[in-house]
Amino acid sequence: MTSRLLVFAIATCLAGGVAAQDLGTTCKVASTYDLTVRPDSLVFERADAAPRSVRMQDGSLTTDGRAVSLRPDEQDRVALFERNVRALVPKAKAIANDGVDLAARAVRDEAATAAPGAVGSGELDRVLNARVADIKRRIAASQSTRDWQEDAMRAYAQEIVSDVAPILTQDVGGEAMALAMDGDLQGAAALRDRVASVSTGGQARVMARLEAALKPRIQALCPSIRQLGDLQSGLHDATGRPLLLLEPGA
């Protein structure tokens, strides 16, 4: 994503596939920075413009390795900015975890339509549960919004779809072969197409379900995101330029 929404990165952990542009319009806040939430500090990083690195730690501010001189009231605002970001993280991860569960259920529904035998055997649920547990562990351990953005969540959804595709193919393989041997080539092809649609179109359908389910929860965090924009107002980097970790959205 060329313009990374902090409302998307912090507030959603990329939990729903909601378009960044849509949330930018809703929350009126955008960011070009990636954020790493460390135990002792917040670190904002980007590659395309200075300051490329911004660090907040207990009311102190450093940009591109240089300490910024702050008045007491500015120190308070930096400390509050950091505290508010940290308060958003567990809310964001909760949405992300729910997003993973919803994605798995959506994929299971896709699979049940394409190959009901795979669901009945229990193998599909075993694979889905293992993948969900793995993704949730990664989200829980993650400190960086690079793991929380829309592209990351889409990748997680694709991992789920990719896990189940071989199971579906195997499940319908025997049935399709039997139909073909009986001369019903059209029926065999239809079975294979039904399974292929889970891999090719399943991700889009899964993300659409996630968007509908999670978008209201994501938007509910917009006031907190906009408050972060208010807190940065008047802050400057070490060279005296206005600090714009968040910028007005479209």
Structural notes for this entry:
This protein has one domain (6-248). Helices cover 64% and strands 9% of the residues. It has 9 helices and 7 strands; from the N terminus they run H-H-E-E-E-E-E-E-H-H-H-H-H-H-H-E. The strands form 2 sheets. A 5-stranded antiparallel β-sheet has the order 2-3-4-5-6. A two-stranded antiparallel ribbon has the order 1-7. Strand 2 (34-37) and strand 3 form a beta hairpin. The longest helix has 43 residues, at 72-114. Mean pLDDT is 76; it is low at 1-23. InterPro entries: DUF2884.
Pick out its properties.
alpha+beta; 7 strands; 9% strand; 250 residues; five-stranded antiparallel β-sheet; 9 helices; elongated; two-stranded antiparallel ribbon
Please report the distance between the alpha carbons of the first and last residues.
15 Å
How much helix is in the residues?
55-70%
> What percentage of amino acids are in beta strands?
5-15%
Number of helices: 9
Query: What's the β-strand tally?
Result: 7
Listing every helix as H and every strand as E from the N terminus to the C terminus, the arrangement reads HHEEEEEEHHHHHHHE
| Regions with little confidence, pLDDT below 50 for 5+ residues | 1-23
Shape: elongated
Tell me the strand order in the biggest sheet.
2-3-4-5-6
Largest sheet: 5 strands, antiparallel
State the domain count. 1
Average pLDDT works out at: 76
Kindly provide the radius of gyration, computed on alpha-carbon positions and rounded to a whole number of angstroms. Answer: 23 Å
Give me the secondary-structure category. Answer: alpha+beta
